[in-house]
Amino acid sequence: MMLGSRAMRLGLPAMLAYSAGSVGAGAFFAFNNFVIPLLLSAMNAPDLLIGLLSSTRSIEGVIVQPTIGAWSDRLATPLGRRRPFLLVAIPLSALFLFLAPFANTLVQVAVAIFLFSIFFNVAVDPYAALLPDITPADQRGTLSGISNGIQLVSQVAFLIVVSIAASSGAVPLWTFGFCGAVLLASFAVTIRFVHEPRQLAERAAHLPLRAYLETLVRNGQALRYLGTIFVYQFGLSAVIPFLPLFITKDLGQSNEIAIALSALTLLVTAASAIAFGAAADRVGHRTVLGVGWTILAVAALGGTVIRFLPETIAVVVLAGIGNGAATVVKWPLLTLLIPAEETGIYAGLSAAADSIAIPLSVFVASEVFLPTLGYRGVFAMLAINIVIALALLLAFVRVPRPAAVRSLTAQ
Fold this sequence. Notes:
Blueprint: H1 12-42, H2 47-53, H3 61-74, H4 83-99, H5 106-134, H6 140-165, H7 174-193, H8 198-206, H9 209-218, H10 220-239, H11 243-250, H12 255-283, H13 285-303, H14 309-335, H15 343-373, H16 377-396, H17 402-409
């Protein structure tokens, strides 16, 4: 029997099987967002390059991610429509992680980072689309909470290992290979034990391409929501790559403290994601997203004025709570606005929006905010964007009632 389908509720073993992949994803995100900036800074890379390379999304994703998403929607294989992408792309991403330590120049390192990021992104959007494929609508918040919680705890564990390894002052290059090994092992569990409902792939494969694309264009609610997320992501993406540098350069703390504070942020975010994920299935995903953004905006304003370590810790905890709420409902809310057969293309469109927002955000932060306000300027940028995104969410995004959601997913 399959571990999950649209007709059955998932038990804890099925949820953990899906969430196993989040262990590897967490290690990858931690490495990209928090470790690569320190490695590149030690190589005297410019801030703009650090920001671009330490972001998991890059500009080519504007084309690649929607294409992969649409392909995964319409693919029919014995493995299903999502797992083939995991089976091919995850080993390729790990391969370039294993090869990266042998690079001798900044250009070679940049090429390796670019390649392992591309292949990771080819896998991670079908992995996200797999969640609504195997989960009833009223369990998506819960599974998203567990999956995101595990991913964030994995990030913390990875950063603890790196922090211990970097106690001598430098981050060792073997962390590239360690990240690749965790990525391979964790996704192997998901590929082996999660089985996809074949009827979704069969229905999507027989849907004419023109009708598929027309449905996509007509879905105004989903497109408005993606636009709102773009505004939010534009602000958040400026903070992630520069947070370790803010701690080490603006606050004058060590690399170990920077990694420890990053780990604290993730740990609080994990606990918040699990709690808010369960709450979202009861009070509504849009409500939880609004609460999360509000808390995160307050934390961002705090980030513009903090000077010392104790107050930094307080802001980090507050940011973790808000980020956990926002992270856990971002994707499940979108799945409530779209047909079941099209989760792949929408995962790709969401990634494409990120692929534009992230490099653009890094460029604006590097050229406008950092020269005038230092690294703390990214917090001002985040606060401004959250206020705009929150206004758009409340004014233009409407989530259908549960009965309407069931009708939409049955189309």
